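Hi everyone,

Forwarding the result from last night's run.
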Amino acid sequence: MRVLSSVPFFVWLLAALTFLLCLGLPGGYSYPIALLFLSGVATVFFRHSGLSRISHDYRLMLTWGGYTLLMVLFVYLDGWHVRELDRPARFLLAVPVLLLLLRQPLPAAPVLFYGVALGAILSCIVALYDRFSLGLTRAQGGENAIMFGDTAMLLGFMSATGLMLFYSKKQYWSCLLSFIAVLAGIAASFLSGSRGGWVAAPLIVLFLLWQSRELFSKRVLWAGLSVGFVAFIALVAIPQTGMQQRMHVAYSDLVQYQQGNSNTSIGLRLDMWKSAFYLAAESPIFGEGQYGSRAIRESLAENDLIHPNAAKFDHLHNEYLTSLGFQGLLGLISLLAIYLVPLKLFVSRANKYSDNWDVKPYALAGALIPMCYMDFALTQAMFSHNIGVMMYAFPIVIFWAALRWQEQYCLSAEMPK
C-alpha cells in the first residue's frame, strides 16, 4: 500500500522533470515524457479512482486528436512522406498522459512550479556556458538557438506564476527562487539572440501584472519591476551579451531589404512570408504542402519574386503562414484551434478563480503556454521542431490536469462536513 500511495508523487515528479530537463540536457524533455506516456498506455485500460471526466477534458483531447488526424490528411495529400507524421502525432500521444494525470492526485508540494523554476535557472546556466565558456555567438544548449531562447523565455514567464503561488502562501524563499528563475529564463533568451521571443514580452508582462494586481502591493510590484528593469538595462549595455549586436543586425537587415537585398536573416523571412500568399492563392483550402510547394517556390525565385535562398527552407519561419501556405485555410484554422481552445480553457478558469491563489497560478501557467507560442509563431515555425511540439502538447495537458486537481481540492474543502 505504501508503494501504491507513492505512485502519484513519482508520476508528477516526472511531469516536473519535463520542465527541469528540457534545456539542461539535449532532448532532456523526452525522457520523462516517454516514461509518462508508457505509464499512461499501461494504465489506460485499468480502472482507477481519480477525477471524473468533464466536457472540457474531452474538448482538449478532441482538439489534440483532431489536429493529428488533419495532419495525417495533409501528409497524404502531400505525397505521403510518412516521416512527417512524427511531430504532429505527438499531440495524440499526449492524450494518454492526460488520462494518467487525471487519475493520479496532485501532491501537496507544488512540484511543477519547482520544476519550471529550476528549468529556467538551468537554462541560464547553459546559456552562460555556451556564450562565455564555449564562445558561441548564440546560446543554444544542443538545440536550435531560436528554439532554445523561446523555450527559456516560456520557462521564465511561467516561473512568474509560481512566484504568485509562493507569495500567496508566504513562502518567501520559494518566492526568491521563482524570481531568480524569471530573470534567468529571460536572460537565457537574450543570450540566445532569439529576437522573436522578445516581441510580445512587454504584453505578457502587462498580462501577468494585471492578473496579480490584487495579490502584490504596489511597493512589491515596483520593487520587482525595478530589479527587472535594471537587469534588462545591464543585459543591453554589456556588449558581451550580444543584445546590442542582434538589435543592430535587425535594423541593418531591414535597411538592406528596403534597398533590394533580401539575402539576410530578416530579408529571407520576409520573402518566405511573401511566398506563403502565392501558395495560398494556388490552393487556398488545402495548401500546396511542404513538398508540393517546392516547385512553386523555386519558380518564384526564378522570376525574382523571392530570393533563391528563401525557397530552400522546409518551413516559412512563421507558424501561421507555414500553415496557410502548406495546408491552406483548413490548416490555419486547425493551428488556431490548438492555440485558442486551451487558451480559452485556462483563461476561463483564471477568471473563475480570480481570487483563489491555490488554483489561479496553475490556470495562468497553462494560459502562458499558448500565449507565448502565439508570439513565437510570428517568426518561427515552432511545430517543425521536436522540442517545439513536445514543450507545447505535453505541458498543456500537464498543467490542465494539475489545474483540475487543484480545482477539485478547493471544491472539496468548501463542501460542508
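The mean pLDDT is 90.

Cheers,
N.
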